[in-house]
From TrEMBL:
It comes from Butyricicoccus intestinisimiae. This is C40 family peptidase. Keywords: Hydrolase, Protease, Thiol protease. InterPro entries: NLP_P60_dom, Peptidase_C40. It comes from the Bacteria.
Length: 159
């Protein structure tokens, strides 16, 4: 947040949202027990938008990409590996056309672009993911078909 504004990405565009339209309520405040539905996990993920990214972050106040997806899956009662590479290596692979809400989407964010997984997002449907992007943006909503992510897409996965 800078001067009361959050940087967000939506529908392939970047913009700002005033902090007056957001809240920093604890995302864990509903449902706290494991085995929430995918719909509830998406609602929980949405409440984290605006939270900071910290490399190696496992929460509860900051996450990296794989720490964020690991936490969401734990809320759904599933244990998944800690790193994006291990999450991809151990999931059931899903084609982009068969992605469902709650799946994971994997990318190579290295430069130059490689085929090695280095980033993961939580797919919420209709081409969108919520993910811990980087230290500048934190946790955001993003389109997996944007120019940046479509070039770096490696695959989808399901647990």
């Amino acid at each position: 947040m800078s001067n009361g504004w959050y940087l967000i990405s939506y529908n392939g565009k970047t913009g700002y949202i005033s902090s007056q339209y957001t809240s920093k309520s604890k995302p864990n405040s509903s449902p706290s027990s494991a085995n929430v539905s995918i719909t509830e996990a998406i609602a929980i993920a949405r409440r984290y938008i605006g939270y900071p990214y910290v490399w190696g972050g496992n929460g509860p106040d900051a996450y990296d990409c794989s720490g964020f997806t690991k936490m969401l899956y734990a809320k759904m009662g599933k244990t998944i590996p800690r790193t994006s590479y291990a999450q991809y290596s151990n999931c059931q692979k899903v084609s982009k056309s068969n992605l469902k809400a709650g799946d994971l989407v994997f990318f190579s964010t290295s430069t130059p672009i490689s085929k090695i997984v280095s980033h993961v997002g939580f797919y919420i449907g209709n081409g969108y993911m919520i993910h811990a992007a980087n230290t500048r943006q934190g946790i955001i909503l993003d389109n997996i078909n944007s120019n940046y992510y479509s070039q770096r897409y490696i695959g989808g996965g399901r647990y």
